[in-house]
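The freezer alarm interrupted the setup, so I double-checked each line after restarting. Inputs confirmed:
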Amino acid sequence: MTLTLRALLGATVSLTLAGAALAETTITVATVNNGDMIRMQGLMDDFYAKHPDIKVEWVTLEENVLRQRVTTDIATKGGQFDVLTIGTYEVPIWGKQGWLVSLNDLPAEYDVDDLLPAIRGGLTVDGELYAAPFYGESSMVMYRKDLMEAAGLTMPEAPTWDDIKAAAAAMTDKSKEQYGICLRGKAGWGENMAFLTAMSNSYGARWFDENWRPQFDGEAWKATLTDYLAMMNEYGPPGAANNGFNENLSLFQQGKCGMWIDATVAASFVTNPNDSSVADKVGFALAPDTGKGKRGNWLWAWSLGIPAGTQKADAAKAFVAWATSKEYLEVVAAKEGWANVPPGTRASLYANPEYQKVPFAQMTLDSINSADPTNPTVDPVPYVGVQFVAIPEFQGLGTAVGQQFSAALAGTMTAEAALAAAQTLVTTEMTRSGYIK
Amino acid sequence: MARKVSNTRKTVVTLAAWSIGFLIFFPILWIIILGFKSEGDAIKTPLQVLFSDWTLQSYHDVQARSNYARHFWNSVILSVGSTMIALAIAIPAAWSMAFVPGKRTKDLLMWMLSTKMMPAVGVLVPMYLLFRDFGLLDSRIGLVGVLTLINLPIVVWMLYTYFKEIPGEILEAARMDGASLRSEILYVLTPMAVPGIASTMLLNIILAWNEAFWTLQLTTSQAAPLTQFIASYSSPEGLFYAKLSAASTMAIAPILILGWFSQKQLVRGLTFGAVK
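Predicted 3D structure, all chains:
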């Protein structure tokens, strides 16, 4: 009897220990709906093979919904997520607030020094890396080589805004629904203001001077907005005030745009013969400048961060390290080809001869390298960020200013009136928030 | 005696009604059509879209990527659960307001309706903190409670309007025959108000099914209904129109079918008491 009892007890203890060893840790990953993130969800077998004790639950949401959802959760310490997909705008703000776990202790084989300096710089606060970049992007000129050739023009690798204006004029034929240039016009801090803020950097403009005084009443902003409106009104598609990334992508793929200046990630869409009618006719160039030392391109990275309140930081770190590693890039390349590897994060990817064969690889790298989030403008500024200002107030401010500029594009107000309204509303908000004493 | 209407007038009115109906339904029809197109075709001009090839690829992709069944059952549980609880609370409340009104009944009704006037986002943080502290985040119970409270004013108002149309003398007669309050509501009032209760129930289910603020903010994965299923296919950067349309069609199909089969009941209930 005693023996039986002992045997039963022993078996129970063994089973309990075995169960504990096999116990799964489930982490919840909040992510955006973009091609690279969706692809990763299909490649999880590699992660599960390396970490059989971790299960990943995905929550995929539209970018703006996700932003609101995770901001609420992290600000209230709701603890609903263990890994967050966040942008370059959030990381410096959340890192300063102490809302994110530092990733400085990632293992040596992760090779943090391989991360592109511009991208890494945007994710680092006071020497602490607060998010690991999953995919990085800048913006560049995508143009129709056939239309340029027909117009007798050649696109320089590093064009000026005057080159762009001349090319737009030469390629426009509105009777054939062929528009020289397609740019973002839809209001929003991540929509038209991402483009216009980056463009303004190349004109020598800035959002604020060193004392946080708004600069929309300066000549540089006036020149930026006037040129943008002139190009769009003369050579742009109708209804451009409602056009964002997707609308312009659709126009370009249908062959209706001579040029499109937008995210480098669009290169894979416009050169995909399944979706694009102009796939074999697209050329790439750096975003334009005016010779003042800054180009009109932005810098963005979707990165993986770990909220400070998570109870599963170790499992979350294991996932982040895997998803942003060099090995993951090889997994994607092996299964989906090098053109589908998440771009813009690691120097080693661009040194890879296989990846160098991808037509837009070098231009993407050059575009990323030419943006500096810590020194984004010609004149000094007190903020970090190329196409945004990394302060919590910017989402609201950027969208409010974007509405003025979008209204100017729609023709309901003049450029001067839009700039004056922007100056007033930004001054009011910055004074109320205590930036302007 | 009915007025004479000429055939021409009849034709014009019928054509106008069908045209307006088609215009209202067109966005839904277009979503259904885009769901059967490839991503490349879905962004073309309307005529090119119509004459391009039809495919089930988007439905296949959506099925492969998402757990539709889980979202669907969550939607069913949330909408039906919240509607049943709201009805259980609202029927006695509407009875008392309709048949034994007090001095402040009208004010009370207006106050209930006024709670719908505040934007939901205004109470997001306090609600989130309450849910966090009570362990209700990403739970069906918590969301059923929220959806019940959100729609309760509308349910009470609708039932109150229907009950007002029922002659109080019938209830008095039941009382004279010795019916208790419970029997009066259950066996006399409710059967007479079935069309009104049915249309209220259907409308409430539709409202709860489509609720997309709280269901997105308070769920993560386990309790997430079809609203989150749709939100996962939208993107400001990328080509997802066909998949988004397929996901939207799958999300609205159940409620569309329910509305189709119950339209007689719905119209009867909504026009209840319109003609005396």
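Quick read of the result. Chain A is about 45% helix and 15% strand.
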